[in-house]
Amino acid sequence: MDNWIQRIFLGIVISLSAFNLSAAEQDSDDPSKIFEPKIERQAVDEALIDDEDFEVGIVFGTLGIEDFGAAELYGVRFNYFINEDFFLQVNAGSAKAGLSSAEQLFPGNVLISNDKDFQYYDLNLGWNILPGEAFWGDEVAVNTSFYFVVGAGNTSFLDNKEFTLTYGAGYRALLNDWLAFSVDTRNHRFNSEYPVGEVKSTHNLEFSFTLSAFF
Questions:
Q1: How many alpha carbons lie under 13 Å from residue 143 in its C-beta half-sphere?
Q2: How many angstroms from the chain centroid is the CA of residue 159?
Q3: What is the CATH T-level fold of the domain 45-214, as seen in this structure?
Q4: Origin, by domain of life (predicted)?
Q5: How many whole angstroms separate alpha carbon 32 and alpha carbon 17?
Q6: pLDDT tens-place string over residues 47-58
Q7: What share of residues in the chain are helix, strand, coil (percent, to 5)?
């Protein structure tokens, strides 16, 4: 009697299992039954450069003039973008040097030119080595680029005009499709005879900001 009841229940269980397996196979074959996660795409307003290849900007910052301390720097900058990776850059800047270390130690006893305007212009080749993006909040994406520049030009200082090598790096962020903001650091290297009368290499370090527009 017990064996007969066990056979009945065992048959019911086997029938139910077969029915559930068949239903599961049918659901897997039906594309409408496949689970698809719903991912909401976030709308992002991304600043892009227009088709213009030219950029002009106003430069302001600090210039460390060797042996004369730091001075305020003002200038202009012009870029021509050859392609997405390389650009040509023309710079012109001016700073007013302060007292030299010798003048501070021996005031009035050092013969030095009164013309302490540090003026330079140079032509550089730039390389956008690390293009990328920065996010301002949840809805604004800003295109950015880390770049290197190297070039040469001329520096007028202490009644002398010296051939100058220029090299450095910068970081540019596009505020919108025509306005950009850059941070630069570079070295203006040239030979000078001041203050010892012997020709030596001087390093004049610039740290500057540029607000520029594309056209």
A1: 15
A2: 36
A3: Porin (2.40.160)
A4: Bacteria
A5: 24
A6: 555 556 899 999
A7: 15, 55, 25
- The DSSP letter of residue 122 is E
Kindly report the average pLDDT of the chain as a whole number.
82
Angle (nearest 5°) at CA 176 between 205 and 130: 50
Question: Is the distance from CB of 133 to CB of 142 less than 8 angstroms?
Answer: yes
Q: Rounded to whole angstroms, how far apart are CA atoms 73 and 8?
A: 97
List pLDDT tens digits, range 88-122.
999 999 999 988 877 777 776 555 667 789 999 99
The answer to whether residues 168 and 186 touch, using CB atoms and an 8 Å cutoff, is: yes
178 Cβ partners below 8 Å, 6+ apart? 50, 52, 213, 214, 215
Which residue's structure tokens are 């005009």? Answer: 161
45: pLDDT strictly greater than 70: no
Please provide residue 210's backbone torsions phi and psi, each rounded to the nearest 5 degrees: -135, 130
Question: Cβ(114)–Cβ(99) under 8 Å?
Answer: no
SS3 for 87? strand
Residue type, 192: S
pLDDT over 70 for what percent of the chain? 71
pLDDT of residue 51: 59
Within 10 angstroms of residue 2's Cβ, the number of other Cβ atoms is: 6
